[in-house]
Specification:
Blueprint (H helix, E strand, L loop, with lengths): L1 H130 L6 E3 L4 E3 L4
Antiparallel strand pairs: 1-2
């Protein structure tokens, strides 16, 4: 009987230990379920953030590709404009050079013409002086006579 009592006490202790073990296991299980649920929720938030970040990166990549294409087009256009401007600049410089030469030629021609005119005027003045009648107070024009007033 004594051994039956001991066995009963041991069985009761085992039963109590089993129940306590189940309670502890249930408590830990509940706690881990809560922690796992929190980790799952955090994981979903991180996945959403990563998805959002990937979408933004794709948008950025698209924007950069568009910018690159626009930049290439603008660079080509600018190069064409620059080469056109350089051609126009070369043409203008050659025209300016030709005009400067023409101006120098005109200046030389003008100087020569002025010199010739001065010589001609001097020649005419000297021939007029030589052919001019002496200055008298009276000039006879045929039937009309003109007298210089006396001063």
């Amino acid at each position: 009987m004594k051994s039956a009592k001991i066995l009963n006490i041991l069985a009761l202790l085992l039963f109590i230990l089993g129940i306590v073990g189940l309670a502890v296991t249930f408590s830990f299980s509940k706690e881990y379920k809560i922690k796992i649920a929190n980790l799952d929720q955090q994981n979903k938030l991180l996945i959403d953030k990563l998805t959002n970040f990937q979408n933004k990166l794709e948008d950025l990549r698209t924007s950069l590709d568009t910018f690159k294409d626009d930049n290439i087009t603008a660079t080509k256009d600018a190069s064409l404009k620059i080469s056109g401007l350089e051609t126009a600049k070369t043409e203008i410089i050659s025209k300016i050079t030709m005009l400067a030469k023409d101006i120098q030629d005109l200046q030389k021609s003008y100087s020569v013409t002025i010199s010739e005119l001065k010589a001609k005027i001097e020649s005419l003045n000297s021939s007029l002086s030589a052919n001019a009648p002496s200055s008298s107070a009276k000039v006879d024009l045929g039937q009309i006579a003109v007298e210089k007033p006396k001063q």
